[in-house]
Amino acid sequence: xKDWFYRQIxxxxxxxxxxxxxxxxxxxTHRPLEQRKRWTKQEVLDKLNMSESTYKRNxxxxxxxxIRLNGIDEYFEEDILMALEESRRRGRI
Length: 93
Hints:
Elements: H1 2-29, E1 38-40, H2 41-47, H3 52-60, E2 67-69, E3 72-76, H4 77-89
Antiparallel strand pairs: 1-3, 2-3
């Protein structure tokens, strides 16, 4: 019975450690909005060397998720990096 109890404690301790690591990763990746770099649509087109038609296709396919403020598309830099990583994962880049 003691062996079973100690194994359960070990499992719960491991789960707790994993949850703490997830919490620390979440805190590191989510900064306040004022500190996050925003890109305009034109900056995305220029920096990624993307044409207007490719931009529209990526919007339609759901690869890009703009924040629309007064009709202007803006992006957080982290979202663009995640979209690039997804393209690499799918073998498009």
